[in-house]
Structure to design on (284 residues):
């Protein structure tokens, strides 16, 4: 080959490679600086992101079984990543099999709540994080109570914002059998609607009481500091949130309502920040 042509081609290839490099890194970093990664254990693959630095803060988005990281940045009353990444190492993940997420795994029909908690704890193990704080919205409430049951010595403090609870027995079953199951089975031929029905029945109908994952007696004995920000819609019943707050010996509760008017939201965020700072361990 002509030496000049060889040099031109070589230079062009190098330029192409250099131009491609930013795109590769762009796929790993979202706008705002949160790094995207995957954690895998057996057939389970969990998409997660981290942002900020400091004491670890696990964030659980609302959205029911379609809970994804984007629910934290676009779907809630405030963006906890933006609010807290300046002080904490914020960690968030897409729920296993959420339709708009990138996490996947089997339906564990006999232990739905614990399967999701396995993913949360497994992610923290993967990141070599022992102790952490956690903040959850909506379905994050039951998940947090299950985390407190499963790993009480690891969770320093917890914030439950507009937590889910059981007042209407079939609400969550009906919501997910229509809004989660069909899209899941359409993209996963290994999962049938019969399996979805059994999974949701075990999750929401077998023991449709209180906060789904723990008993009132557990909450009464729980020694972890918790801050509860109640809501008052069927999926986030005020009565259940307040009952949990009254039972838990180290519970605090926000003003109510805290989302309306919207001018109150910064006050609620300020209370969350003060609560987290009060219980954050001192640096070693």
């Amino acid at each position: 080959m002509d030496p000049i042509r060889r040099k031109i081609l070589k230079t062009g290839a190098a330029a192409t490679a250099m131009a491609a490099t930013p795109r590769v890194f762009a796929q790993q970093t979202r706008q705002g600086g949160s790094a995207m990664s995957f954690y895998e254990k057996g057939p389970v693959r969990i998409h997660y992101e981290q942002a900020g630095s400091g004491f670890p803060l696990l964030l659980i988005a609302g959205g029911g079984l379609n809970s994804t990281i984007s629910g934290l940045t676009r779907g809630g009353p405030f963006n906890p990543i933006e609010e807290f990444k300046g002080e904490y190492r914020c960690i968030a993940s897409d729920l296993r099999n959420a339709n708009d997420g990138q996490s996947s795994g089997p339906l564990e029909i006999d232990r739905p709540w614990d399967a999701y908690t396995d993913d949360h704890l497994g992610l923290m193990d993967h990141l070599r994080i022992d102790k952490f704080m956690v903040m959850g919205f909506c379905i994050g409430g039951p998940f947090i109570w299950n985390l407190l049951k499963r790993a009480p010595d690891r969770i320093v403090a917890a914030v439950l914002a507009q937590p889910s609870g059981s007042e209407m027995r079939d609400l969550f079953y009906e919501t997910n059998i229509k809004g989660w199951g069909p899209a899941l089975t359409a993209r996963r031929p290994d999962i049938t609607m019969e399996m979805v029905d059994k999974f949701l029945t075990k999750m929401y109908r077998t023991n449709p009481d209180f906060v789904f994952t723990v008993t009132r007696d557990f909450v009464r004995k729980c020694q972890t500091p918790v801050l509860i920000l109640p809501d008052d819609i069927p999926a986030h019943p005020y009565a259940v949130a307040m009952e949990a707050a009254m039972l838990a010996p180290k519970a605090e509760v926000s003003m109510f309502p805290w989302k309306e008017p919207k001018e109150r939201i910064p006050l609620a965020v300020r209370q969350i920040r003060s609560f987290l700072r009060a219980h954050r361990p001192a640096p070693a």
